[in-house]
Amino acid sequence: xxxxxxxxxxxxxxxxxxxxxxxxxxxxxxxxxxxxxxxxxxxxxxxxxxxxxxxxxxxxxxxxxxxxxxxxxxxxxxxxxxxxxxxxxxxxxxxxxxxxxxxxxxxxxxxxxxxxxxxxxxxxxxxxxxxxxxxxxxxxxxxxxxxxxxxxxxxxxxxxxxxxxxxxxxxxxxxxxxxxxxxxxxxxxxxxxxxxxxxxxxxxxxxxxxxxxxxxxxxxxxxxxxxxxxxxxxxxxxxxxxxxxxxxxxxxxxxxxxx
Length: 259
Prior knowledge:
Largest sheet: 7 strands, parallel
Oligomer: single chain
Shape: globular
Order of helices and strands: EHEHEHEHEHEHEHEEEEHE
Radius of gyration: 19 Å
């Protein structure tokens, strides 16, 4: 049995992950961690009997040893959380976005020093991964593109990790990298990442959605992926929990690497 700790267990993604782990025959939900467990109402809201609940990651680590930690917390806390889990001899599966390139370098060094692996995915939905893979193919022939990403209004980071990853993959595949049309510095043109404008929408009623629009002479081509339920992410999360211990590198980014 893979003993799993879920950090951020009362968040929408964390709570769905707890259900997914409990549904697998080869996994056990050995701990749920969330600062909201400091409130009795938070413990009652969790609703899964028999699972040890901790209001801090340090408390959970002190009480038990785990095989894999899954982190769905916040951009401001994720680096410290994952570092603590690596030092406690856990492999880590990370869905929290917002870490910098410098953070990722430091995280890889921490994982190597601990002899543990860390897997990050900006998006665990298989359809979203396929959208990114197909975008790379299209970009070879239609290098002009823009990205529109739409998420619920509780999402803390913008642009989304998925859109940033998509832009990076597209840029790596393009034979030419055309300059995005101006005017330069106009906020209405979105955040420019790897030469690609990204437009972020945050509204109630949304979950996670992204459209990549390619333009060429006399034509456009659009790809769109919609996660209408957080259940869409769970096959990817479960797959990562199973495979993180066997990664050949200490830090791996992107679900496509293990599919």
